Amino acid sequence: MKKILVARKLLDENNKKILNLFDAKLNKEDKLYSTDELISLSKECDGILSFPTTIINTETVKKLPKSIKIISNYAVGFGNIDTIEASKKGIIVTNTPEVLTDATADISILLLLGASRRAYEGRLAAESESWNWSSDYLIGKQMTGKKLGILGMGRIGRAVAKRAKGFNMEIHYHNRNKLSLELEQGAIYHKNISELFNNSEFLSINCPGSKETENLINEKTIQNFPDGVVIANAARGEIIDDEAMIKAMKNGKVFALGLDVYRGEPKINQKYLKLKNLFLLPHLGSATTITRINMGDRAINNLNQLLNYKQKPADQVN
Ligand code: DGY
């Protein structure tokens, strides 16, 4: 049986499957392995089942044992892995697309609603038992009929668009390329992000994290939004320049922000915590049982295809 290092805890349903197919070193205690531990535990293994918290950068890839043929990442994003260095070493990297689309799109809508309807302040007030209903108490922004910009119109972005139509929103998007009419479903394409931001009363960030998308929302680009924009980020923390965002949230350019992801998470820029117009979640985009089982299943299938069937894995990304 081929040997696999599983870098974090999997759900029981996934453990059953991986133990049927492989000699798998499970991490039932869910320990966060250091780089040295990861390298030494992967000795004699054929593959690694990695997680968004498993940082496999250039140096780590270089130090991985020669026996490693595949890193199967349990996430749709794979910014935690240096895929170029992996290719140089002949290591295949895979991800888990499709299976988390709906769960993540749901969280994008939750972030937009939580931010625009002031859910954080609402919770604080309700807990304090000192609030008093009145006609202008904790007034938020309504999504109905507004312009929603979607930054990154891949599977998740399109699923957000579908949900936003239930709010009668007008959908605008930016992508590297314009989508076919069938995929666009009436959404309006903007070649430049400045044009997209001009047309975004609400913005949902759903593009991958990469060198190209790092700090796309910055001091300069924020100026393109209409005053009082509501922004939600369910993609990667690095896409937002936090200092610029905090400034814009303080001066009202940004009415409110919803975040599920952070630069250097689980850390958060402490200045955010002083702001009430912030709705926060701890990276819950894919956190439903069915989605997590399907992600594990998909990650195990990729290992199985390559190692047991000698086929190209369905979700190879490098
Ligand atoms: C992903 O798959 O990239 C998600 O962020 C993990 O929850």
Question: What does it look like?
Answer:
The chain is α/β, with parallel strands linked by helices and 318 residues long. Helix content is 35%, strand content 15%. A seven-stranded parallel beta sheet has the order 8-7-6-9-10-11-12. Helix 3 links the parallel strand 3 and strand 4. The radius of gyration is 21 Å and the shape is globular. The two termini are 25 Å apart. The mean pLDDT is 98. The site of (2R)-2,3-dihydroxypropanoic acid has 8 residues, from loops.
Give a brief outline of the structure.
By secondary structure, the protein is α/β, with parallel strands linked by helices. The protein has 12 helices and 12 strands.
Please tell me the total number of domains.
Answer: 2
- The arrangement of helices and strands along the chain is EHEHEHEHEHHEHEHEHEHEHEEH
CATH C-level category of the largest domain: Alpha Beta
DSSP summary: helix tally = 12
What fold name goes in the CATH topology slot of the largest domain?
Rossmann fold
The fourth-level CATH homologous superfamily of the largest domain is NAD(P)-binding Rossmann-like Domain
N→C terminal distance: 25 Å
Regions with pLDDT < 50 over 5+ consecutive residues?
A: none
Walk across the major sheet and give the strand order. Answer: 8-7-6-9-10-11-12
Tell me, rounded to a whole number, the average pLDDT: 98
CATH second-level architecture of the largest domain = 3-Layer(aba) Sandwich
